[in-house]
Amino acid sequence: MLAPIAERQRRPENALWREFELARPHILGALLDAAAHGLRMLPHVRLKRLPRMADFTLWATACESAFRPASAFEAAYSNNRRAAIENIVDADPVAALVREIMADRGQWMGSASDLLQVGANRSGWPKSPRALAGRLRRAQSFLRTLGIEIAFGREGRLGMRTIRITAMGENRTHNTVSTVSRVSDNGDGAGLSHPPPGLEQAL
């Protein structure tokens, strides 16, 4: 966000454009210098991983060292992308709750019905397990960027649908596993375990 312009620094538009026309040749020269530098450096650019818009990232990285320290663009691009994803997660009650759940544990496992009950009193919360699972699938890629992996599967002879949420990388601060429901192999459904006392409050 740009800083506000103080009253003493305000000026009419024609004065602004007059100053720009004086600076235009220097701006163009700097851009051409950066492009020439990028063309020389591009064959030597090696990144540990390629984000989305990979070619753009390679080109910007090749050009950046004309004016900035190496890796400055990669850090700024990564921070901006993460900030945008954080805003998306904040605006989605389902994704926001998953991030809260995984803030102090390494793994959570249960059914969509279990997770539906955890956030039942939240505004904008889905009304059914199926709707909740759909919202989780849409949030998967955003949460993965924040170090949270969501996997859908089946367990037991009855093939009960389960959701496994795992904290990866820097998000993995704890090794605890919270299992909200578990299907036994006897196939009669009696193996569904209830959360230990206090687990729902902890979630």
Describe this structure in words.
- The protein contains 7 helices and 4 strands, in the order ααααβααβββα.
- The protein has helices at residues 13-41, 54-64, 72-91, 93-101, 112-118, 129-145, 199-202, and strands at residues 107-110, 148-155, 160-167, 177-179.
- Helix 1 (13-41) crosses helix 2 (54-64) and helix 5 (112-118) packs across helix 6 (129-145).
Brief descriptors of the model:
203 residues; alpha+beta; four-stranded mixed sheet; 48% helix; elongated
Helix and strand layout, with pairings?
Blueprint: H1 13-41, H2 54-64, H3 72-91, H4 93-101, E1 107-110, H5 112-118, H6 129-145, E2 148-155, E3 160-167, E4 177-179, H7 199-202
Parallel strand pairs: 1-4
Antiparallel strand pairs: 1-3, 2-3
Order of helices and strands: HHHHEHHEEEH
Describe the global form. elongated
Distance between the termini: 35 Å
| Low-confidence parts | 173-203
Strand content: 5-15%
Biggest sheet strand order reads 2-3-1-4
Q: Report the structural category.
A: alpha+beta
Taking the sheet with the most strands, its summary is:
4 strands, mixed
Average pLDDT reading: 81
* Tally of alpha and pi helices: 7
